[in-house]
Specification:
Two copies of one chain form a homodimer.
Chain A (H helix, E strand, L loop, with lengths): L16 E14 L2 E7 L4 E6 L4 H9 L5 E10 L14 E12 L17 H6 L1 H4 L3 H23 L3 E2 L17 E3 L7 E3 L5 H9 L4 E9 L11 E10 L3 H20 L9 E3 H8 L12 E3 L1 H4 L5 H8 L3 E8 L7 H12 L7 E5 L9 E2 L8 H11 L6 E8 H18 L9 E5 L4 E4 L4 E4 L14 H4 L8 E6 L2 E8 L4 H10 L4 H15 L6 E7 H9 L29 H6 L2 E3 L4
Parallel strand pairs in A: 3-5, 6-9, 11-17
Antiparallel strand pairs in A: 1-2, 1-4, 2-3, 4-5, 7-8, 9-10, 10-22, 12-13, 13-16, 14-15, 14-16, 17-20, 18-19, 20-21, 21-22
């Protein structure tokens, strides 16, 4: 029905007759002539209808925004002075010879120009088919398609097989709540939608497929705080006979290829690496944003003996932490700004935000300004100044509390300061975090929980620690962090049944429970399971970062709202009593 | 961990030290030497352990079937007389220098040799990770991965965007039963799993994406007669501004590319086409297997007046059909075989299977043999002989009943005869079936039903028939048939709201019901919907045909059983009362 896309026309087509199909972006009548900006997937082009040709001109007069047109016309150079350098096709225009109105349109309930993003998200989702017409959304989904294409090509070239795993399956143990699907043929029983294909991909390794990948839909019935969706997409990868160096090397290479081809960005080779403990120490986070050059510095040893319990108490607590965060030229911060940051760290449980302003260190204690100065000894002050390397004009923030609170609050503060004050260095900072502990102790429930998932292998040399000191046992897990966002996580898996049982027991999963929930995995491990490992990337997040979108909802065609509903189709919706009956279910009365 | 795959070694590696990883296919001790066939994804290779090297030899003695090994060794030419031409690596063997047992294995509950397919399907599915180790299953899933790669590449090259549509969505109107997913945040409401992305892909066209594809998971909660699965995979495609010629041409080209690259088969260019009515007339089916050269011939006009109600009654019934099927050299069929075919057509509701054996037509009526001969006039016999072109030695079968019964029974019989008697011509016979009616009349419920789905467009010139004669109104649908299996179906869709409403009304969907179920589609049609159409291919079936498998379960990694259960994970399974409570549900008491 067409010879070209609107947006691909240029001076190369001057003198050609073309046929175009698209939507009316706008119509202007000017000097007895009608100008129509016609839009398609590729871009916009200006069509001119002249009263010389009365038939198409008369039709052009009927045209409104978002009408669907088919236009035949002659590409010509725009007259001098009317060239539009803002527009890719701005050098030319099309003189309309024929016009067919393929469909009409009512006035759209959301604007399709640059103000569209101002419409409420509810409205944008209800009329998603209009919202998606905006070039911004077109570009994002176009880029998403390119990204998956490049990832697939890379994996294909490296011998990975694309294998589909079930959506209707058994509850998977990822910790979040499952979506359940009632079975009609087995009334009273339920399928679960997978939170990830974790166990299936391990089974595929046991089946000898050697290298597997899948762009897999995953499901979590969580409360949608933050930027979560009930269904999301994961690039899921597993390999046999490869260690963590092999997996990380290959995945780095894949991500570098992706950034080079999509964004023309050369990511570092190799990616930097940090151990979990160093990341927590220096950045208070296991997914630090390395674009922000601020770092936490431990000062507990300097303040153990000061007469200031806010510092001394956590400094003497084995689970406590006292850390300083030096902000170069932070002395310019106003009292009000400091108050706002104090509120900010309160979100993470910090009870306050101590600070020292360094006005003129040559004057010693007198050259500093701080409400806590009076509590600190000269030695402590000297130690802090030396260790943080503070200069005149700087500000030093302090965190002192349980280590978790200090890490979370100062870790978040350093990123916030970096963003607020424009301290970011470089656009893209990838990072591997490695040497994670196998377990974290949940003091409240007095038990060990898995830091990754229960199929993650301990380091070979740490196997003995499973018995003697589980908290010291490190795993073979690795997370890929980009600009402070975890975009991928994986590990070498346990491939020996006795190690798997030992880990289950440590996690308070009895042999009986293990058999009931993971019996098929334990059985499979007995029949010749190869050493294997893998990784999963959050595709939505990766696309969000690469397209500069602010939410994963902006890179999905039909996302759900924060209450897990779809304003477009009005799903979820009530069903007939007969359907429930077939499933052997009834609704509970509302409390 | 390795330098090569086992199955890729050959004379090119002679003299090289290699490292291999894989599974023990078998171990033989022969003349004081240990031979191990080591298997990986690519193939088998023979490893030899010599008592000269006591350490690896001692380890090799412990090895059992399905143990996982890492072997370092030297590739060498096999001695004369021991070359195995059956094996791709049969020219060489690897002299083992070092052996690491990466994992042990218990004796597998199913054999992994050629007898494995004899194990019950239940057992094969329970130990699917073992079943999948068999080269046959490896090859099928490998081919499946290649097929999707080639399809994706073709579509990428033709400007199609891969866009994901929701799995948690609203009930889709494909006629089958939906799988439901209870919502926790909206208690009493349910998502449905999509039977296809039909409405979303149409919305993507309205959103201006122009060319969409997705390898999409689809769900139907049906009773699993025949070769159906609760979840299956569809290659889903939609384009804007393209007519049926455009869609069919592009899709043909894609399928030809696929067959050329995967099977080195040149499919015809273009594919043959048949109208629905001609397909029914000549083959009694809208998905005829054109490899079978037998055809139905109408003879109602010849037997309208005979004194044989079995023929005369349907011949005079406007809904009846009387047809003949000539089987060349069918005179050799025994009485018993004919009885079996009579039983066979009974499955399709035929009350009998009349026939005439042509022994010696030169003798006229005397040269024929048939229980019904006495009822037929000379003219009728002459007419039948002429019209079927029967020769001496042939057999002519007859069907006489409602057209539906004749079509289904003789249609199935012609394929069965073709297969039984080895009459098939050519390996691959693709065919487009076009010019489908929009509607079929459901006499029982006295209403029109859509032959495809309610979004299929009528032919432009038939729009008037929607009012005057719906039964005569043809649609813009097209089905792609391969060897008698429908592998794809699609249509140009309705893009005008008033036509969509008219079709809904004809299908007995009131404006109110339409608003409730498809309100979002009707609304979307009002805001500038482009002309569009598409197609969906049953990927599982296509892969099944291309790999020569006998069931779609043989080309899926983890299929369900005929009762929609997974013997491996034991899904579906009971859930905790607390989970039901969260969803606002309770189980009904068993009746």
């Amino acid at each position: 029905m067409r010879t070209h896309y609107c947006g691909e026309l240029g001076s190369g087509q001057i003198g050609q007759e073309v046929v175009l199909c698209g939507w009316v972006q706008r119509r202007r009548d000017h000097g007895g002539v009608i100008f129509i900006d016609l839009r398609d997937r590729v871009g916009l082009v200006q069509i001119v209808f002249d009263p010389d040709r009365p038939e198409p001109f008369a039709r052009a007069e009927q045209v409104r925004s978002e009408y669907v047109l088919r236009v035949k016309g002659l590409v010509r150079q725009r007259p001098d002075g009317t060239i539009n350098p803002e527009l890719a096709t701005g050098e030319i225009e099309v003189l309309g010879h024929a016009l067919e109105i393929l469909n009409t349109a009512e006035t759209p309930p959301i604007h399709l120009d640059s103000h569209a993003a101002d419409a409420s998200e509810e409205l944008r989702l209800r009329y998603r088919y209009l919202d998606l017409r905006r070039p911004e959304m077109q570009t994002r989904l176009h880029t998403r398609s390119r990204i998956t294409r490049i990832l697939r090509r890379f994996l294909d070239e490296h011998g990975f097989l694309d294998i589909e795993t079930p959506i209707l399956t058994k509850s998977t143990p990822e910790g979040a709540r499952d979506y359940l699907v009632p079975s009609r043929t087995h009334q009273g029983s339920f399928f679960a939608l997978p939170q990830s294909p974790q166990l299936f991909k391990q089974l595929l390794m046991m089946a000898g497929f050697d290298r597997y990948y899948q762009i897999a839909r995953c499901f979590r019935d969580e409360d949608l705080r933050a930027d979560r969706q009930p269904e999301f997409t994961q690039l899921d990868i597993e390999v046999s006979f490869m260690d963590e160096e092999g997996v990380m090397g290959l995945m780095e290479s894949m991500i570098r290829t992706l950034f080079r081809e999509v964004l023309e960005i050369a990511l570092p080779d190799p990616f930097p690496r940090l151990s979990y403990s160093e990341a927590m120490q220096r950045f208070g986070s296991d997914r630090p944003d390395l674009r922000v050059p601020l770092e936490l510095v431990d000062i507990a040893d300097l303040v153990k003996a000061v007469d200031f319990q806010v510092f001394a108490s956590p400094a003497n607590d084995p689970e406590g932490r006292v850390a300083a965060l030096r902000l170069p030229r932070g002395g310019e911060l106003s009292r009000k700004e400091i108050d706002q940051y104090t509120q900010f760290v309160g979100i993470y449980g910090a009870k306050g935000l101590a600070y020292i302003k360094v006005n003129d260190w040559a004057k010693g204690r007198e050259g500093l300004q701080s409400p806590i100065l009076k509590f600190l000894t000269d030695d402590a002050i000297q130690g802090i100044m030396t260790r943080t390397g503070a200069q005149d004009g700087d500000l030093i923030f302090f965190g002192a509390d349980k280590a978790r609170v200090v890490n979370e609050s100062l870790g978040a503060l350093r990123v916030k300061l970096g963003h607020d004050l424009g301290l970011r260095q470089g656009d893209w900072q990838p990072l591997w975090v490695v040497d994670f502990p196998m377990f974290e102790y949940d003091a409240e429930h007095r038990r060990w929980v898995a830091l990754h998932h229960p199929f993650t292998s301990p380091k070979e040399t740490h196997l003995g620690l499973l018995e003697t000191d589980p908290g010291a046992c490190l795993s073979r897990a690795y997370d890929l962090v980009l600009n402070g966002t975890e975009i991928g996580g994986g590990s070498i898996r346990i491939h020996r049944p006795e190690v798997q049982r030992q880990v289950f027991r440590l996690l308070n999963i009895s042999d009986e429970q293990a058999e009931e929930r993971f019996g098929f995995l334990l059985r499979a491990l007995r029949y010749g399971c190869p050493p294997h490992g893998g990784i999963a990337f959050g595709l939505d997040r990766l696309v969000m970062l690469m397209t500069g979108a602010h939410s994963i909802r902006e890179v999905m065609a039909f996302p759900k709202t924060q209450t897990a509903a779809c304003p477009l189709t009005e799903a979820p919706s009530p069903v007939d009593e007969s359907q429930l009956k077939e499933l052997g279910l009834r609704l509970r009365a509302r409390p």
